[in-house]
């Protein structure tokens, strides 16, 4: 154990060997982790208790879970800007690396981060918005939520990198001290004027008039930029990098409690939205019409809790990484792409803009309509194609912790893991073409003949909306016909449609 702690940091050792009890290969789980299993059970019980009455109960809890992280972030911000090395961390954050622009994985991870933080394509936004009044200003809400999310991400980035800068500076200074102490012990105080060769080479040094032969010792490499680059993402950032930095704070226990309470509230708050999206969808589709909502929520929580036991063993961290990498990025982008195509090319951007105008009294600008019709689908399709191409050419793998080396080693995913990835992705997206095919052939899956109530005439009178002719720019950009319908936009298509 003593050797391992010297090779890896104490935080790494505790995280991998004590907390996760991690195995060295995804194929060999080794032990069942009862501590992680108990934590998952408690977490799902708490989620159920908060969600038992649906939006009525979770809405009250959100007042705490949504505001507490901001309070902690502000506290960490003022602590972070007083730390030594803070400026190095912020410079590292805001210094662009232009070669990364061409890396499709960067765009995929950036898109996934936005989807996660905004809750896009999960169904949670649609579920919660269904509780709003029909004349709710969704345009204002969308702008406010997007701006708040962007500013929060930037603020959190400043907090994290100020502390990462402090941690990197401490490691760098300790490395320099160890290096200088080693040179002082070997060469004495005259080492500052000596030009040293590579490690392992023989050389002679004049010390106090005596020519002495030395073998150049191995010295630690001290590089601040390398320490700043040696950051992590996901669990590695939260439980290793950030934790190592907090351990060096005065009163580290207080800061640790604050930090992990923030993580807990963020996690449980995110789970509310995801679970509410599932529960509301099942209720609206009347899959279990005679089942009370409390029992339905409890059943879903129980199933999810049982599934989470997949992560409560030695290889659970690798399986969690598999789920995190593939069940939350490609499916979300594919679902969001289909949503954009459905709105822009099936329902029609003009009809969608008309609906928003009826609800808010304000018509969306041309910019938003161009985004819905062209920019957003094209961006998502480009990210998907380039990401799939890079994945096919370079492959994928996971970082396995090797206890004898005290470090991680890159390993490829086994065949069964690749098959599991295909199941995760296809299980999320096959419903879209499947239901479309069933509808095309008249096969009824869900009874949805009852049309939703929408007081179009009342809203039109309330906002004073008059019928408006199709503008020239709408005809040019979207091939909108005079009757309001939309045609295809390749050359000659609109004229043919009009003649017919």
Q: What's the short story on this structure?
A:
This protein has 500 residues and is mainly alpha-helical. The chain has 20 helices and four strands. The strands form two sheets. It has a two-stranded antiparallel ribbon with strand order 1-2. Strands 3-4 form a two-stranded antiparallel sheet.
Describe the structure.
This protein has helices at 2-7, 10-19, 34-51, 55-80, 86-94, 104-118, 124-129, 138-187, 224-229, 235-246, 252-284, 293-308, 316-326, 330-360, 366-394, 415-429, 431-440, 456-463, 472-478, 493-499; strands at residues 202-207, 210-215, 397-402, 407-412. The chain has 500 residues and is mainly alpha-helical. The strands form 2 sheets. Strands 1-2 form a two-stranded antiparallel sheet. A hairpin with a 2-residue loop joins strand 1 (202-207) and strand 2. The longest helix is centred in the first third of the chain and has 50 residues, at 138-187. 19% of the residues are buried. Keywords: Membrane, Metal-binding, Sodium, Symport, Transmembrane, Transmembrane helix, Transport.
